[in-house]
Amino acid sequence: ENFKPAQVLNSLKWPDNHLTTNRKLHFSIAKDDDDVHFEIDSLTGDLFLSKELDFETASHFLLQVVIQDYNSNPPQNNTVFLSIDVEDQNDHSPYFQDDFVVIGIEENVPVGTLVYTFNAKDGDGSFLNSKIQYSLEMSNMGENPFLIHPSNGTLTTAFPLDREITRSVILTVSAADQAINLTDRRLDSLAVKIVILDINDNSPSFTSLPLSYVMEDVEVGFLVHRVIAKDPDEGRNGQVTYRILSGNENKAFVLDEITGLLTTAQLLDREIQERYSLTVMALDDGSPALSATQVLTIVVLDVNDETPIFLKQIYETAVHENQDPGEFVVKVEAVDRDAGLNSLLRYEILPGTGYEKFKMNSDSGELVTTASLDRETQEVFSIKGNSCHDLGSPSRSSTAQLSLMVLDENDHNPLFVKTQYQISVREDLEKGSAILDLFASDEDGGLNGKVTYSLIDDTFGAFAIDSVTGSIVTTKALDRETKSQYTFRAVASDCSTHLPRSTTVMTVLIQDVNDNVPTFEQSYYKASVWEDQSPKTDIVQVFATDLDSGLNGETEYSILSGNENATFLIDSARGILATNTVLDHESTSSYRFVEMASSHCLVLLASDRGTPSLNSTATVLITVLDVNDNPPVFSSPEYHIHVKESIPVGSHITEVSANDCDAGTNAEITYAIISGNDRGHFHLDEKTGSVDLMKTLDYEDTMKFTLIIQAT
To answer: Which CATH class is domain 309-407?
Structure first.
């Protein structure tokens, strides 16, 4: 559009195939086109600009060019339509309707809130030349809390706003077109003032200290503290009033709601309450109202108006004996309700009995020993005076009493009265019987002096000791015949693990009781003796044993029964049985001594000498051996036999019989005919004494035979 008039825009040409030499053409613009911006050279066809163009007025032209060809006859007319587009030139600057804009926005709007929309205009017609891009600049170097959209010109918040930090912002908003050539671009700017409007978004903030001090003896109405709170908001939003929310239940203070002056409303006593924690609220007058609280600590300062008081009027404590000097005993403690030097106490021991063995730490009240204590020498210390005073001015003081018990240490071991004991007990003592009460003494006290007893050697299960009383008792029936003496050690111990124990040796002798019966080695004896022996001939020796001792074990022998004729006698000490008379086998073949006496029996008795005496019996069978002192004797001195002469040979005639009082072979008899059988008529059986006929008899020859028969 900035093309200058009279310059050739273009030239219309006839096509080459139509060109002829010296062709005459005439160019013209149709007259019905009233646009006077263009002219054409009628001969050459050159198109000229006759009037300046304005893209914003007309951006397109359509020209009807008539070409007359005079070489034809008649002349021919050709019409050409020529379309002309006007190219825009950036000849207009963007512009704002206002030179200065003031905008108000509340400080509590969120980020991204639309603040204002700028609308700049540009007279150019093409897109880029009239396309506006916005930009933003701040007048100072601070952070820009706003953001402008480069295309649509919307101004929004980029950061949270705070009026109390930034009350207003001066911005320069620029609008620039987007011509292709940077040098051709045009711009306009606008000054903008954005005022941040106050919102009650700030609570009051305390600037006064949260701590104050006041003496406890001040009068009512005394100014204690001034509460100050600031509110950066404006107007009523920043007007602050004060009140106490809590901590003043006893109405000790009054707070002026306008000035914030805190004064006492009653007398104070630090010993009752040494500090007050007042929750104070500062409230602004905004809508809604905002507030802040502060815990205001009022410390009541001490005046020395209290006397020290011991926690106990009598301190009772204990300390072990034998400890090195410096042993801690007790810590006495007094309280002084005052504070600071007024409550700082000093302790001391007042002179009294035994106080020299102790020392008091004046600062801590700790009592320690200055010497080693011995419970066996002195068990209790009573210190009448124990004093403390404060460091106030004037000083105040009080006293207490101390009672100290010396605790026992196990520094003595138990001791038996004797180092050995010997006792005798009967063997028939019942199980569980006490035979001796041991006693060991220990000078220590309490558990340290409590003695326990025990046995440390084998008693073969016969004895035990009561660990508390020291009584030794039997644990089973005793038997002297099994074990006649026990030797063992008894020990006395206390609870110490390092002190030596006390030991005594116990010897228990078991006294015999006649509890065993004399017992024969055999219950039945057999013995023999030849007849005709002289009196006092030993036959047999019997033995009986008695496990008892002394007289209880001494055995005496006697014949209890079966010895009516005193045929035998027995040595009472040795048990030798002997003849008392000459024995005759033929008179008495045997004597029986049996346990159960009968009319023909004797009893052999073994008795001890105990009281009462115990005894037992045995059976003895004594056989009297035969001596050949008796001849055979025929049952009849003569035998008269009558026989017929006709009896046959071999017939039995008679039988002779003789007896011998002796025994055994001495009593075996042999028969023989010693005369009267010379002719052999008879036969005599030497064993049986049977007489048989051996030859025929003849009365006429011999009418009588006299046979002499001998029994040997």
So the answer is: mainly beta
Beta bridge partners of 275: 299
Is the domain 519-625 a CATH 2.60.40.60 member? yes
Statement: residue 596 has pLDDT above 50 = no
Q: Please calculate the CA angle 345-347-352 and round it to the nearest 5 degrees.
A: 155
Q: What is the CATH topology of the domain spanning 7-85?
A: Immunoglobulin-like (2.60.40)
What percentage of the chain's residues is helix, strand, coil (to nearest 5)? 5, 40, 55
Q: Residue 589 burial by CB count (10 A; 0-12/13-18/19+): exposed, middle or buried? A: exposed
First CA to last CA across the chain, in angstroms?
209
Q: Who contacts 503 (Cβ-Cβ below 8 Å, separation ≥6)?
A: 416, 419, 456, 489, 490, 491, 492
Question: pTM higher than 0.90, yes or no?
Answer: no
Average pLDDT over residues 659-665: 81
pLDDT at 595 over 50: no
Inter-residue contact 330 to 402 (CB < 8 Å): yes
pLDDT at 378 over 90: no
123: left (phi over 0), alpha (psi -120 to 50) or beta: alpha
Q: Does domain 95-197 have CATH number 2.102.10.10?
A: no
Mention every residue, 6+ apart, whose C-beta is less than 8 A from residue 299.
211, 212, 213, 214, 274, 275
Task: Report in angstroms the alpha-carbon separations of 561 from 200, 522, 566, 605.
Answer: 146, 18, 10, 9
Domain ranges of the chain: 7-85, 95-197, 205-301, 309-407, 415-511, 519-625, 630-711
Q: What is the dihedral of CA 541, 542, 546, 547, to 10 degrees?
A: 80
pLDDT for position 16: 54
Tens of pLDDT, residues 89-115: 777 889 888 889 999 998 889 999 999
| pLDDT value of residue 651 | 92
Sort strands 415-416 and 60-69 into parallel, antiparallel or unpaired.
unpaired
**Which residue from 376, 680, 354 is spatially nearest to 367, judged by alpha carbons?**
354
> Do 510 and 484 form a contact (C-beta atoms < 8 A)?
yes
If we measure between CA atoms, which residue out of 690, 683, 686, 581 comes closest to residue 639?
690
What architecture is the 630-711 domain classified under in CATH? Sandwich (2.60)
- pLDDT-based confidence at residue 205 (cuts at 50, 70, 90): very high
Per DSSP, 481 falls in state T
Torsion of CA 42, 46, 47, 49, to 10 degrees: -100
- Cβ-defined contacts of 310-316 (< 8 Å, 24+): 310/334, 310/386, 310/388, 310/398, 310/399, 310/400, 311/335, 312/400, 313/400, 313/401, 314/400, 314/401, 314/402, 314/403, 315/386, 315/400, 315/401, 315/402, 315/403, 316/403, 316/405
**54, pLDDT greater than 80:** no
pLDDT tens-digit readout, 136-172:
988 776 788 999 999 899 999 999 998 888 888 989 8
CA distance 542 to 538: 11
Mean pLDDT computed over 508-534: 88
Other beta carbons within 10 Å of 117:
12
Task: Compute the Cα dihedral for 350, 355, 360, 366 and give only its sign.
Answer: negative
127 secondary structure, DSSP code: H
Instruction: Between 576 and 68, name the one with better pLDDT.
Output: 576
Give 205-301's CATH code, choosing from 1.20.1560.10, 2.60.40.60, 3.30.930.10, 1.10.150.20: 2.60.40.60
54 CA to centre of own chain: 104
